[in-house]
C-alpha cells in the first residue's frame, strides 16, 4: 500500500447538517469537522467497503462517556433526537479526552506505518505536552469558580464542566427552545444563580437566550464548540466562562 494512503481522515457530517443541502452558503462548517459519534462508523464502512486496505479507527476508545443531560437530545442539530440512553457526544471539549484521542490515533498510525514510529511518538509527546499545559492553565483559570453554574443555550460543555468542577445549565429543553412556562422557570433560576451571561453557539437561534438575558439584565455571548482550532478554543471558552462567573 502506498505510504500516502496508509492513513486518511474520515470526516463525518454532524446531526444538524443531515438532510440539508450541503453547500458552502448553507452550512460551511458541516463538512470540515471530524465528528466522533457511533453512526460515523457505519458511514465510514460504506465508504471503505470496496477497499479492504482501509482501516476505520475509533479514536474515542477508552474515554469514560458522560450521560447526556436531560435537555441534550440534539434535536436542534438537525431535528434528529438521540435515543435516551446515548452518551454525551461532545467528547472533544475536554483536555483529557483529547489526550486519549491523540494516543489512539498515534497507535493506529504506528500500526499502519511502523517505519515512522519514532517520528509519530515524538510528535505525540509534543502534542500531549501541549494539551497537558493547557489543562493546567484552564484548571488555574477556573479554580476560583468551582461549583458555580454557567448558562449556555445548548449543553455542549458537559465534559468541560466536569473537568473543572463547574455546572452547565442549558436554555434549550430536549433539543427545543423552551416553552413560555419553561422560560419563566429558567429566568427565575438564572436570577437565583445571579448570572449575567448566556452563552449561545452560532449554530442555534439566539431568541430564547436573548429573552433570558433581557430578563436578568444580562448579555448574550457567542461561544462555538465546533471551532476547528480545538486547543485554542478551549482556552478562549475557559476565559469567557471565567469572566462571566466573576460578574
Give a nutshell description of this structure.
The protein is an alpha/beta fold and 247 residues long. Helix content is 42%, strand content 6%.
What does this structure look like?
- It is globular and about 60 Å long.
- A four-stranded parallel β-sheet has the order 2-1-3-4.
- It is built from eight helices and four strands, in the order ααααβαβαβαβα.
- It has helices at 38-48, 75-78, 95-112, 117-142, 158-163, 180-193, 207-215, 230-245; strands at residues 149-152, 167-170, 197-200, 219-222.
- α3 (95-112) runs antiparallel to α4 (117-142) and α6 crosses α7.
- Mean pLDDT is 80; it is low at 12-37 and 72-84.
- The chain is of the alpha/beta class.
- Helix content is 42%, strand content 6%.
- It has two domains: 3-139, Rossmann fold (3-Layer(aba) Sandwich); 145-245, Rossmann fold (3-Layer(aba) Sandwich).
Amino acid at each position: 500500500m502506498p505510504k500516502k494512503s496508509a492513513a486518511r481522515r474520515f470526516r463525518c457530517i454532524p446531526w444538524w447538517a443531515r438532510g440539508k443541502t450541503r453547500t458552502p452558503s448553507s452550512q460551511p462548517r458541516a463538512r470540515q469537522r471530524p465528528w466522533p459519534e457511533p453512526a460515523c462508523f457505519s458511514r465510514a464502512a460504506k465508504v471503505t467497503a470496496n477497499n479492504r486496505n482501509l482501516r476505520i479507527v475509533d479514536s474515542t476508545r477508552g474515554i469514560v462517556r458522560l450521560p447526556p443531560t436531560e435537555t441534550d437530545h440534539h434535536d436542534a442539530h438537525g431535528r434528529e433526537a438521540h435515543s435516551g440512553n446515548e452518551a454525551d457526544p461532545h467528547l472533544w471539549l475536554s483536555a483529557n479526552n483529547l489526550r486519549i484521542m491523540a494516543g489512539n490515533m498515534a497507535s493506529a498510525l504506528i500500526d499502519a506505518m511502523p517505519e515512522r514510529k519514532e517520528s509519530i511518538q515524538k510528535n505525540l509527546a509534543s502534542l500531549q505536552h501541549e494539551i497537558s499545559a493547557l489543562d493546567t492553565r484552564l484548571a488555574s483559570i477556573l479554580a476560583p469558580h468551582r461549583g458555580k453554574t454557567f448558562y449556555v443555550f445548548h449543553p455542549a460543555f458537559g465534559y468541560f464542566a466536569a473537568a473543572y468542577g463547574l455546572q452547565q445549565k442549558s436554555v434549550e429543553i430536549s433539543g427545543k427552545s423552551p416553552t413560555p412556562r419553561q422560560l419563566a422557570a429558567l429566568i427565575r433560576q438564572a436570577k437565583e444563580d445571579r448570572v449575567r451571561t448566556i452563552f449561545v453557539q452560532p449554530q442555534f437561534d439566539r431568541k430564547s437566550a436573548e429573552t433570558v438575558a433581557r430578563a436578568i439584565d444580562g448579555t448574550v455571548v457567542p461561544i462555538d464548540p465546533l471551532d476547528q482550532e480545538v486547543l485554542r478554543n478551549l482556552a478562549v471558552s475557559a476565559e469567557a466562562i471565567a469572566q462571566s462567573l466573576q460578574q
